[in-house]
Amino acid sequence: MLLSETVNLLFSLLFMLSIGHGTTKDVKALCSTCKQITENFNKGFERTANKNFGGGNTAWEERKLSKYETSEIRLVEIVEGLCDSSNFECNHMVEEHEEHFETWWFKRKAKYPDLHHWFCIETIKVCCPKGTFGPDCNSCVGGSERPCHGNGRCDGDGTRGGNGKCSCDGGYEGEFCLDCAERYFSEERNDTFSLCKECHPSCTKCSGGTAQDCEECKDGWEEDQEGSCIDIDECSKDPPPCDNAEYCLNTDGSYSCSVCDSRCSGCKGPGPGNCSACSEGYADEEGTCKDVNECEQTEAVCTQEHQECVNTRGSYKCQCASGFGEQEGLCVQQPEADDSQEQPESDAEVPNAAQQLAEHDDL
Ligand SMILES: *[C@@H]1O[C@H](CO)[C@@H](O)[C@H](O)[C@H]1NC(C)=O
Ligand SMILES: *[C@@H]1O[C@H](CO)[C@@H](O)[C@H](O)[C@H]1NC(C)=O
Fold first, then answer.
1. Which of 188, 192, 194 to mutate to test the pocket of ligand 1 (most atoms within 8 A of CB)?
2. CA-closest residue to ligand 2 atom 12
3. What is the pLDDT of residues 72-118, one digit of tens each?
4. 273: Cβ below 6 Å to ligand 2?
5. Which of 135, 220, 270, 286 is the most exposed place for a label (fewest CB within 10 A)?
6. Residues 129/121, Cβ–Cβ less than 8 Å
7. Do 206 and 228 contact (CB within 8 A), yes or no?
């Protein structure tokens, strides 16, 4: 015995609890557990291929102890590596069927070299041969050779669970996965074989792969005189699809609207060089909307005494000149001593800058 009877019993109890509901999903899981076990068995078999009884097999030892290659010691080493210690289902299955591994190892291996087939399918009956499903291993829809005609997955394929029905791959539909789905056309088809390909992006129904083969255009595309589906240029429509402060960008089958540069009043593209007209405070300079410096205009914009003009983006400010402060709408001289004592240092760097008499901001 490889593990104690007590552990075995405990596993059995836990296992009965875990499959208490006996759904088809559990049956599928049993098969994949079994498959994992037999795969690990094959790996363990390879891993131990060049081993021997520790010290090296002398001729005497070989005669006396029988070969390591076919020994119980090698079997135990392989079986120990079949499951992660945390994998309950795996450990349980190995425990429950431990004697089958011994039977196969000593008596069946030569006649039935495929352990998965002998153990999972024939002996403990949790799996079925490829292309078959369910308790009796019936053929999948479309036959066991090419389930779902090669265009889908058969439910329960290779397990004792499932219903054998197909879930078709992308592009295929129908019980047998022989029909083409929407936006696909049939390139080749007979009773047992079907090849579907995708339509051109401009159509929803088609008889071939190009825009000329459309039977129905997708939204955003329209039929031209020759019967091809061509992109609709939404941007050239009347009325235009975008807002006044936006420009339009046509794309295949669609379009998008983006906000104009703030220097533009209406535009045909991105940036200040694509304006239809300039925003207030900006003027066209060689095709680009640039800020107007109101302070340099021939007619002064800040007209009060001791006022100075400060240009801003798209506008300007009138503020009291250095040493003057605003009082009742006028710029008056500031008492210098008081000023330097009361004002914190950071403000002193730009004296009176914050004091505005007027701001002309049109944006
Ligand atoms: C169906 O077409 C496939 C692919 O061309 C071909 O291999 C197969 O023999 C055909 N079957 C019949 C019944 O014509
Ligand atoms: C105007 O817009 C086009 C795209 O519509 C862009 O390629 C071009 O660079 C823009 N011109 C300027 C001067 O920004």
1. 192
2. 273
3. 999 999 999 999 999 999 999 999 999 999 999 999 999 999 999 99
4. yes
5. 286
6. yes
7. no
